Amino acid sequence: MLPSRHPGHRDWHVKLLPTHVSKAPVWRLYMKSAKELGERAICKSSFKVLWTQLLPHIRSCRPHTDLCWQCQQNNEQLIRSANLLEERKTAAIKKQQDHLQLVQKERAIYNEMTAACKKTCDDYQLFIGTSPPSSKKIRMHYSFDFAQQL
Predict the structure, then answer these.
(1) For residues 139 and 117, is the Cβ–Cβ distance under 8 A?
(2) What is the rounded CA–CA span in Å between residue 116 and residue 127?
(3) Which domain of life does the protein's organism represent (predicted)?
């Protein structure tokens, strides 16, 4: 279970299972344990009903998306365009394809930058440490995750 209060849940007593764990895998684990112990087990639907009655404070966490805002908007447009005219469907698909091509270019530039920085470190046998600002004529790339850790 994840600690503390979670967004979307007003009740602080709620405990959320990680996104990769739903009631079904817990039921399968229960079935396996019951079988190993030679005990009679209940069916999945009864298990879920009992869970809701006896453990209302333990819930499955919905997966969060790692898509950018534009991808989310484009995907929503694609889903909503199912019953629309072909022109609007085609426009929504084109918009998503254009965005994905732009993202691929950005990713390629990012990979080139990080590869160049790795080469710089290898060439100059650099290591992370303290040195005066602008003391070396080199270029480095810091990722957002790295900056968060500092």
Answers:
(1) yes
(2) 15
(3) Eukaryota
User: Is 132 inside a domain boundary?
Assistant: yes
Compute the average pLDDT of residues 76-95: 85
Helices (H) and strands (E) in the chain, counts: 5, 2
54, 125: one domain: no
Least confident window among 61-75, 79-93, 104-118? 61-75
Write phi, then psi, for 88 (nearest 5 degrees).
Answer: -70, -35
**Domain range for 123:** 69-149
Residues 62 and 55: beta-carbon distance below 8 Å: no
User: 52 is written with which tokens?
Assistant: 């809701």
What mean pLDDT do residues 116-132 have?
72
Written as six digits, the tokens of 37 are: 């112990």
- Burial category of 16 from C-beta neighbours within 10 Å (exposed 0-12, middle 13-18, buried 19 and up): buried
